[in-house]
Amino acid sequence: MNQHNKSHIRLFLLISMIIMMSSLYVWTSPSHHNQSSDNSVAQSLVGTKEAGHASSKENAKIASSTDSASASSLDQSMLSQPFDPHDMSLMGIHLDDSTEDLTSSWGEPSSSYIMPEEEPVKVYEYDGFSVGCTASGHVAFVEVHQSGLHTGIDGLRVGEHSDTVKKAMGSPDQDSGYVWGYSTSHSMLRLDLDPTTSKVHAVKLFRTTAA
């Protein structure tokens, strides 16, 4: 091998070594490791944040379900009282209650409208029942029309058979066959019955004399 070829071989080997050392430096440099580490940390933080959001949503659902169950239990226990003919109420509402008492107990109605009576009555619509209030701000009547809804009186629900109602409340003061009335000196609790099935299809508490 002549001297010229040997020089070319040495030069080739030298260049190869330089390239290898440069590559080794890049892969072992701190900046490359830091970039990989930063990427891993960023991915970890994103995953943790997403997991946190999912956990928060799930906790909110659980809290909402718990609150609903508690409210339902409270309503069930409140609306379960023996019938008192001397202190009649419906849905826990008395005829001498104010509109403030009503909204404090039941919240804002889903809708309302004015009945064009001689003395206009504002009717508040709730889920399954309605309440009429006078211009002076007192309850004029309460009416329940939803089947199965607690009325606030033991043994009395819309859809209940009249025999069950009579056992719980006693015999009515008035009985026309399809309308029963439980009366006081100033008010009446009226039960509208289905003449075919003898089941209650509406209950209304209202004044019979001026307040």
UniProtKB/TrEMBL annotation:
Which keywords, in A-to-Z order, does the entry hold? Membrane, Transmembrane, Transmembrane helix
Membrane-spanning ranges: 9-27
Q: Does the keyword Transmembrane apply?
A: yes
**Compositional bias (Low complexity):** 64-78
Locate the region Disordered. 47-78
**Biased composition range(s): Basic and acidic residues:** 50-60
In Swiss-Prot or TrEMBL terms, this protein is called Uncharacterized protein
**Which species is this UniProt entry from?**
Paenibacillus aquistagni
- Taxonomic classification: Bacteria, Bacillati, Bacillota, Bacilli, Bacillales
